Structures are given as C-alpha cells and as structure tokens.
Amino acid sequence: MTQAPHICVSSDCDCGMTRRDFLRVSALGTASVAAPLLFAGDAMAQQGPKGDDQPVKIGYLPITDATPLLVAHGRKLFEAEGLQAETPRLFRSWAQIIEAFVSGQVNVIHLLSPATMSVRYGARFPAKVVAWNHINGSALTVAKDINKVTDLGGKTVAIPFWYSIHNVLLQEILAKNGLSVVSKGRDGSIGPKEVNLIVLAPAEMVSALASKSIAGFIVAEPFNALAETAGVGKVLRFSGDVWKNHACCVTFLSERDITTRPEWAQRVTNAIVKAQLWTRSNQLDTARLLSNGDSHKYTPHALQVLSKVLTVTDYADYEKSGIIVHKDWNQRRIDFQPYPFASYTEHMVRALQKVRLEGDTGFLQKLDPAFVARDLVDDRFVRKAITAVGGPQAFGLPANLMRTEALAI
C-alpha cells in the first residue's frame, strides 16, 4: 500500500505555508502526484469502519473559520447525532490540511471556498462543499504607518493562499485604488504603484508584520485582532465591508463519504448547523471554548483576542473611525450561517477567473459559474439540517434561500 505523506499536526509546529507547500498542492493536479494520494485515501477508507460507524476526523487551522467544527466537537454535538468523534487535528497551513484530507487522514475539514475548486477541478479529487462555516470574519491589517490603501504601493502584503477570498478581495481593493499586483518574493524590486503578494501561513503573519518584513496581511480572524491587541498593526478594512456576508471557509467532505455514507454526512452536517446556531447566541462562551485557557486547547489564542472577534463590542468604534464604510449593512465582525448560496459560488468563479493566481490555472478558465454552483456544492444535507432547527429564519435567512451578492469597494 502506498504510504500517505507525513503531515505535521503538532500545535507547536511552525512549518508554515511555504512556496514548496503551495507547489506541492498545485502539483496534485498532475496524475503522477495525485494518484498515490488518492490510492492512499481509498486504502485507508477501505480499512476503516463501514457505514455510519466511521468516526469524525476533523482537520482544522487555528482560526475562527473552524469554529463550527470545534464547537460541535467541544459540545459533543457529533455524539448527540450518534457519531464518534476523534480529537480534532490542528494543522499550520492549507497545504498540509489539503494533503491530509486527500490522503484520508482526516474526513471533515474547513477549507477556503476558492481552494475547494482547486481540489475538485485542479487536483481532480472528488469532494463537495456541504455547508458554509461562517460569514465575514477576515480583514486587511496593516502596519501602523499605513493610513490608506495607496500607502501600500511599493510594499509587500501577505495572503494565506492564492485560492482564497482574501486574495480576490485584496486584488479588487488594490485595483480600485490604482495599484497593480506582482509576485516577486521577498527580495524582488517593487514599483511604486505595485503591491507584492506573498503567501504566508496565518500563524506567521503577525510576527512578519511586527518585524516589518511585510506591510500588511489579509487573513481570517483572530490574527487581525491579535495584531491590534499586540499593538503591531491596525485594521484598514474588514472583508465583510467589501463583500457583504461573504463566505470564507466551508465544510468539505469527500464524495466517497457523501455517496456511500449519506446518513453519516447528514449527521455531520446536522451537528455543524446546530453548532453555528448555538454560537450565534453564545459568543463569549464560544470564545472561552476556543481559547488557550479551555481544557480542549483547540487554539493558542487568548480569550481577550477571541472575544474581540466573536463578541464584537467595539464595532461602533470602527464605524466612527471610518473603517466601516457600509454602516447600513449592519454586520458582525464574524457571523455564522451554514447555507451555501449559489449566487456566491457563481460570483466567486467569475472573480477567480480575473485575478492573479500562481500555479496551473488552465482548469479554471474552462469552468462555467452556474455549473460549479451545481457541481461543487451539495446542499441536500444542510437544507434538512436548517429545517430541523427552525428553518432559514433561525439564521435570519430568506425563506427561499436566495440572495443577490453585494460588493462595494
């Protein structure tokens, strides 16, 4: 049997999202690299429990995007659905979590919504989005001497992954302000109207900003709040203030599990939906559960930092300072609703086809947005789960589960 690749899962790991990591994931699109991983995943699945006895094996990054998975585990919501759940495995980069998922080491992950397209259509690994994990929850954070977007000209900004909403929104913000994007690493010459993008693991971004090796980063919480509380950076723009109630991370399951274990997939989704509903009304308790002071030790983050994100007590201050542009959108810094709107997926595809990406993007240009919205997402389970907890109104969603996307720089 082909051995699955070694994946670093230690909470103390500092291996980060290097260019080599990115190229490894990009290479999954070639048969010679993808085949051993797919074989390893199939072999592990065949050896494991059958049917609904398969344990829930969560893979996650220490960001608030993982909240529903961790709350579902911490509050034993999987067990309430008749499932066994192993201790969630913490990863430090998106490359590592993707490899672990494809090779079968974990079977329930949260993943950047654009990255799911790279996995399904680039690497050709059969997996589907079954729910959103959250809405908003990211920001563009900059050094304290940066006061406006144009100040980023000639400087380097970090993104967590090329296939991310962070990359999409940052490039739209920069273009609106007359800046163009380049990718020259850390040592390349950058023009005054250029912004150099590099990929960093979220856990490395605050220290990079503090050391002045980057001028800013755009990433999921709580790293923006961490930079604020540490006094090394400030929020220049919230992502949800650019794309109203956008998704960032989604729940991703293999098509094999969806097809052969539909009841298992339903129960997993039920637990995640119930976790999101509980989180909406228990923000401080959620912050405590995720903090480094809780017995689960899900994340290395302090309660103060997580509370700044989840309880959003200072949102009015951001409005007064002008950081919040669209006050009428009435949003939280991060919020939770599980339904994957087709309109969002379609717009995401069109946006990715226009922005700068690294790696082989040939597959992307061939994709039809409407097709991806139908093929990438399987909303059968989340629809049932939402109905079971009171229907769309329980999350403040329209009864027909349709919306029009709102983007405004």
UniProtKB/TrEMBL annotation:
Its main location: membrane. Gene3D superfamilies: Periplasmic binding protein-like II. It is found in: Endomembrane system. InterPro entries: NrtA/CpmA_ABC-bd_dom, TAT_signal. Keywords: Cell inner membrane, Cell membrane, Membrane, Transport. Belongs to the CmpA/NrtA family. This is ABC transporter substrate-binding protein. It comes from Duganella margarita.
